[in-house]
Amino acid sequence: MELLEQWKSWITQANRAFAHDRFELACGCYQQALTLLAAHWPPDGREEPVAGELDSESLIVCLSISVRSLAETYARQGRRRRCLGLLRRTLRQLSAWQQRQPLPMAVDAALLRECGRLWRELCRLEQAQAALGRYPADRHPVDRHPVDRHPVRLH
Predict the structure, then answer these.
(1) Which of 1, 52, 99, 129 has its CA 20 to 30 A from that of 43?
(2) CB 34, CB 66: distance < 8 Å
(3) DSSP 8-state code for residue 19
(4) Running along the chain, 155 residues long, what does each successive block of 10 average in pLDDT?
(5) How many other CB atoms sit within 10 Å of the CB of residue 71?
(6) Distance in angstroms (rounded) separating the CA atoms of residues 62 and 57
(7) Nearest C-alpha neighbor of 115 from the set 139, 99, 92, 135
(8) Which are the contacts of 116, defined by CB distance < 8 A and separation ≥ 6?
(9) What is the C-alpha separation between 27 and 77, in angstroms, rounded?
(10) What's residue 69's pLDDT?
(11) Gap between the Cα atoms of 68 and 144, Å rounded
(12) Residue 94 contacts residue 117 (beta carbons within 8 Å)
């Protein structure tokens, strides 16, 4: 099975679980999708994907969808710190990846577009949390606490 089909399978399973409020199962499936993508992330300096892999633009889109879906699942579970931490960490990693190497224009455009989507999701969830009165809007408790013991790492 090709990477995209494997990813779609994990996302489909996760979405079904999410639709039935089976959030633990959904988290596990979204995490599997992220782990799959991280294992196929192009190393620094590689311009062309290896045969059978997704092109870089598609990989970025799949990563963004997976992260946003997992973050929403964490939010539904009331795991706000983990949710916000995942979004912030992903944005930092994507920014660092972009700065380490020159990227083709199409890849750079996909990266900027998906980072924008991740930022919007982060802002939406931070505002929702601030509205609940749990944390002041100008403070980010996630920055002071480690959230994941096994974060997804991009090469």
Answers:
(1) 1
(2) yes
(3) H
(4) 90 97 97 92 58 76 96 94 96 88 86 96 89 51 37 47
(5) 25
(6) 9
(7) 92
(8) none
(9) 10
(10) 97
(11) 22
(12) no
Distance of alpha carbon 66 from alpha carbon 84, whole angstroms: 14
Of the candidates 150, 110, 145, 154, the residue with the CA atom closest to the CA atom of residue 27:
150
CA 13 to chain centre: 17
Q: Give residue 50's pLDDT.
A: 52
Q: Which two tokens stand for residue 24?
A: 């633990």
Question: What pLDDT score does 46 carry?
Answer: 54
Helix, strand, coil % (nearest 5) of the chain? 70, 0, 30
- State pTM to two decimals: 0.79
Closest residue by Cα to residue 90 from 34, 134, 138, 133: 34
In one-letter notation, the amino acid at residue 152 is: V
Are the beta carbons of 37 and 66 closer than 8 angstroms? Answer: yes
Cβ 83 vs Cβ 90: under 8 Å = no
Residue type, 17: A
What's the rounded Cα separation, in Å, for the pair 88 and 82? Answer: 10
Of the chain, the end-to-end C-alpha distance in Å amounts to 23
Closest Cα partner for 83 from 6, 39, 13, 135?
135
pLDDT at 38: 86
